[in-house]
Please model this.
Amino acid sequence: MSALQPSELDRPTLARDRSAADTDLKSVSAALRRAEFGDRMRSLLLAAPLLILLVLSFGIPIVLLLSRAVYDPTIADALPKTAQALGNWNGQGVPGDDAFAALAADLKENQAKGTAYELAKSLNARLPGARSQVLKTVRKLESADGPAALDAVKSVPFWSAPSTWPAIRSGTRSLTSFYLLSALDLRWNADGGIEQVPPEQAIFIQVFLRTFFVAASVTLATLILGFPLAYLIANVPKGLAAILIVAVLLPFWTSILVRTAAWTVLLQKFGLVNDFLLLIGVTSDRVDLMYSRIGLIIAMTHIQLPFTLLPIYSVMRTIPASQMKAAYSLGARPFTAFRRVYIPQVFPGVMAGCMLTFILCLGYYITPALIGGASDQLISNFIANYVNVELNWEMAAALSFILLVFTLALFGIFARVLGLDRLKLV
Amino acid sequence: MLLSPYPTTGERIRITLLWIWCGLVILFLLVPILIPVPLSFNSGAFFIFPLEGISARWYEVVLRTQRWQSAIGNSLIVAFGTTVIATTLGTLTAIALSDEKFPGRRIIMPLLLSPLIVPVVITAVGSYLFYARVGLASTYAGIILAHTALASPFVVVTVGASLTGFDRNLMRAAAISGARPLTSFFRVMLPLILPGVLSGAAFAFVTSFDEVVVVQFLASASQRTMPLEMFIGLREKLSPAITAAATLMMGLSILLLLVANILARRGRKAPA
Amino acid sequence: MVETGNVPIDLVTVETATVLQGCDAGILERLDYSKIAPRDKFIQGSALDCGVGLDAYGDILAYDPTVLKEAPTSVLDLFDTTKFPGKRAMRKFPAQNLEWALMADGVAPADVYKVLATPEGVVRAFKKLDTIKKDIVWWDAGAQPAQLLASKEVVMTTAWNGRIQNAIDTDKKPFKIVWNNQILEYDMISIPKGARNTELAYKYLAYISEPKNNAKLASYITYGPVRTDAASFVAPDALPKLPNAPDHLKGAYLVADTEFWGDYGEDLVKRFNAWLAQ
Model:
């Protein structure tokens, strides 16, 4: 506690004069507050256009996408009568004729509205094989009315299979956990519990683990390559450091696509990397690097290296050389000085670089698509594939949801522990 | 500075090893970005070393064929549109945020930066879904909007950095001298932070010019940009024209960012 | 597109299985052949309700004789990794690969689709593919096989015959095509439902279906005509390179069963993708 605390000393004086200065002070502080309020409003107004644009062009799209993971009204909209008829079904076996009649009516309705294909596709996502069965039934219904319609539905064995009706019933609930569970290789079982899907259908846990593994490998590789270089740049004379920094920044400024294209050339069986490996005798035969995990990691390491290096460098730059000299003069051996004085100080930079690279690696798409093989595709590639090839928005949304949770959680830790200033790379 | 005052032999060896290691890392960094350059002058039709001969035929393909010409045109339209919007709005936001009293600064900054962190496929797929509903899919406006989200963080950060060296009293002085807010912005503030604004603009331009994932989802066949044409080429019609396009793209990006970086440095050093 | 009511195109080229599915889904126009050409003049299976054949192409095996000392004699040599070690490229799609897997496992060509229609048959096909899975590089665009061979990334690759012939003729690559056990398919053209210029589209379809026009394509890429009466119009130097040239049908070959892929395609694609990811 310091002896002098001006505010404490001033207060009595102020209190004594208050009566006289009261009105003045009040109006001044009110004016100040008004001015401050005006300032704030003006600042908000300045920031508003970009914030609104970001909400429209970025916020809403992502929220909308994520909502598709848990909200899917296609089946509920297409089968309203069936949903009603299933209201009093006990969930065991196959429901009564009223449900079949309602289904027939709903299917005819869909045929008339032209939404039968949508329904078939949506049901097929939950019940593989349902697509062709729905379309087949719809075709049969074209020429059947009343009781004949009921018979037409019953004549397709698919509708009497034990797995069909529970799937329809769960589909008629618009709010669903089905896709999020599927994205984790889980599903509801008949008893209302959650179980793992059979191994031949389980894909995503493996893909998430693969994504984490690749991200961790790349992070480690960039650290091993980048840390010594950052150290060197921070400790050589200014002119040389500037040249070295440009060497780091040049690839950083080149688009990911261009660098991926370059790596597809380099990694070929008769490409430069293989030539080099043969030359220095590491391998006795040409190795397959394209369409392989190792090729993918090499290319991603190249792309991410500056992201790991620059935050480390920006911390190293601030550590005066005199500190190490002081450590030496106090008798520390170089390694001890490095470990006890240097490392603790650069640790935040190392953490920032590594976390940034890890987070960015989780979202890689272009490089795995072009360099990875079929078993090296990361989670983003599956998201794109569900949208582009399978037109299954719900599954794409569910995978996005989980990927986003991981990414934002890590980013949150980053912002909280290390501070956003460490994101500045340029 | 690398060596201790009285280096031992062991230490000298370690430093030599450090230099060798760093030399290899620099090679690792630079060789891949230099590779497309010689390949783009290859006269053969396949995408491999050794070169079959030297020719400019692939540059001719890129600069003369309709397919690539329209891709270059589209890239420029989108990148310029993005640059104008992102730079304008990003600069305004940076000025607002440079005010210490800005409400909710700690919340807004991470939100502003989140487009850099959210996996771009999610951004692309979400934009595709939403823009298709509001009629913005397959339009230049849609692509520019999505690119603005990706590019504006760079502007906010670079302009923000140049504003840390800006003395707000200058604005007060201008106001006292009778300048209206707009006048004092254009006559006092903008000239001083201009290097930061220009370097932000360059980053915005390059971000949009290099972007391929959002374009892949949002662009129709008539809006294909250069990177998208390259991506398609790498997957479908491999031709050395891709390396020529890559060389051109790389040249432009590096040139712009070199200028941007010099400007940014000058901006930060500018007396204020 | 059709769903949103905005159909910017009047014609679309599609694979046969897609024609059948699109027909079911009601997104392709049911064709009126009286406006095109007599339906019985087409090779069987190349004139469908919602799509008319454009050309016949072969799924073949290609290799570079300067790399492979011993020449493969059948597409099924894909599965012989002892005789032909090294990476092989195959299309990232279940169709053809499952058929070849079954044939390599001893199923007679005539029975392939019968076996593949059973769950055991599917398991059997994937088991056979499992034996070479680690040696496979997957391609998904038609230009990739030639590139993969040129860069010597693979020792052999499945491909569409025209793409390899192009590399041989135009780029002077030393590649060879193995026709034995090829699978024949047809490229299809359809009219999407809701197309704005249907009549114009029909005119185009009628034009390309005239025998002499149908034969012209072979001069640009070596895909065969689908009109039975078009052979005499094919340029003489192109004829021996076509997948349905008499010489290329002497060995074993299979005509892709479009009905089968229309029915089972979607589920097999799903299963194939899950298998790939594992």
Summary: The interface with chain A takes residues 3, 24-27, 87, 92, 136-138, 151-153, 263, 266-267, 270-271, 273-278 of chain C (CB under 8 Å). Residues 58-184 of chain C form a domain with the D-Maltodextrin-Binding Protein; domain 2 fold (CATH 3.40.190.10). Strands of chain C lie at 12-15, 47-48, 51-63, 88-91, 136-139, 156-160, 176-190, 253-255. Residues 73 and 178 of chain C are 6 Å apart (CA to CA).
